[in-house]
Design goal:
CATH class of the largest domain: Alpha Beta
EC number: 2.3.1.39
Distance between the termini: 20 Å
Oligomer: single chain
CATH topology of the largest domain: Malonyl-Coenzyme A Acyl Carrier Protein, domain 2
Number of helices: 13
CATH superfamily of the largest domain: Malonyl-Coenzyme A Acyl Carrier Protein, domain 2
Domain Malonyl-CoA-[acyl-carrier-protein] transacylase small: 139-199
Number of strands: 12
Strand order of the largest sheet: 8-7-2-1-10-11-12
CATH architecture of the largest domain: 3-Layer(aba) Sandwich
Keywords: Acyltransferase, Transferase
GO molecular function: [acyl-carrier-protein] S-malonyltransferase activity
Largest sheet: 7 strands, mixed
Protein name: [acyl-carrier-protein] S-malonyltransferase
Number of domains: 2
Radius of gyration: 19 Å
Length: 312
């Protein structure tokens, strides 16, 4: 590998996790980059995102999603201005795909704001009708063989489950019915694992093919997606996307295909990336062993001091 290949940089827009209004609202109010992006979002939607966020009690409401998008883009703006970031590749695991689409100019930021709002409404309507009892549980330190035994037992009882994410060794996301959650968490604990958090509604599950169809037929055709100006690595299988059609497919794959972060890491390593900027409110991806052991990681976002974490 040449020296130039070894110094390639990736920008990563993190997936969305639970967050409180106090920290998010403070960042939107005080950060100059966030204030600028928030004004663009308000204009695109015709309402005050901050006001709706303040009144929202849902961790994944339309306003919460828009705020997360705003803060992610604002963090990228800061990384460019204060760190001189000029990335070679872009990644947007899970919800981060939306910020990635804006960053690589496949859609203008105001269009991504409107797309995010429409998809949030579509998702809300879907889960009001179907899979109302579905949740996605995230957990760590669980050997694959033990997890396979637990899920096999679920399946033998006729219970539904889907993998929703492969994050690291022993680190998974699984979707299942809420009535099975407590038993599942107990089994994970008995296997030596540790439960982190549960998402409602559920995400990234093959069972949600109908949600994908609705997004594909009712929403995405309204938007003129362009070829990305920067290669994008898909979070499902690590494929490098360079065309509008492939990026559109990636945006749809997020509904019914699991995240596979190890494949993303393999692609970035294979492309010669040694430094990674994670821009946005991230409580997960910069902490993963697979991330820390392969890259010099710089986090830029709410609650961060923009300091690099040393590569182990």
């Amino acid at each position: 590998m040449t020296a130039s290949e070894q110094t390639k940089t990736a920008i990563v827009f993190p997936g969305m996790g639970p967050s409180g209004f106090s920290e998010v609202g403070r960042f939107l109010t005080l950060d100059p980059f966030a204030r600028k992006r928030l004004a663009e979002a308000d204009e695109a939607l015709g309402y005050s995102v901050f006001d709706r966020l303040r009144d929202s009690e849902d961790d994944y409401s339309e306003a919460t999603q828009i705020a997360f998008l705003v803060n992610s883009m604002a963090s990228a703006d800061r990384a460019e201005q204060e760190h001189g970031l000029v990335p070679d590749l872009c990644v947007g695991p899970s919800f981060g795909q939306k910020a990635a689409a804006a960053y690589v100019s496949s859609l203008p930021f105001p269009e991504v704001v409107r797309l995010t709002a429409e998809l949030a409404r579509c998702e809300h309507a879907y889960f009001a009708e179907a899979h109302q009892d579905a949740v996605t549980h995230t957990f760590v330190r669980t050997p694959q063989e033990k997890l396979t035994e637990i899920l096999t037992e679920l399946g033998e009882r006729g219970e539904w489950y889907d993998y929703s994410g492969y994050l690291d060794d022993g680190f998974f996301m699984v979707s299942l019915r809420e009535k099975e959650l407590e038993g599942f968490k107990k089994a994970i604990s008995q296997a030596g694992g540790y439960s982190m958090y549960t998402m409602v509604p559920a995400v990234h599950a093959p069972a949600f093919a109908e949600l994908r169809r609705r997004a594909a037929e009712e929403i995405l055709p309204k938007y003129d997606i362009l070829d990305p100006k920067l290669p994008v690595v898909t979070d499902q299988d690590g494929t490098i996307v360079t065309s509008a059609d492939a990026l559109r497919t990636m945006l749809l794959d997020t509904f019914d295909l699991p995240i596979h972060w190890p494949k993303v890491v393999d692609t970035l390593k294979g492309a010669g990336v040694s430094k990674m900027y994670i821009t946005g409110p991230d409580n997960l991806f910069h902490r993963l062993d697979r991330t820390k052991s392969n890259f010099e990681v710089v986090t830029v976002g709410p609650g961060k001091r923009s300091r690099p974490a040393r590569k182990r």
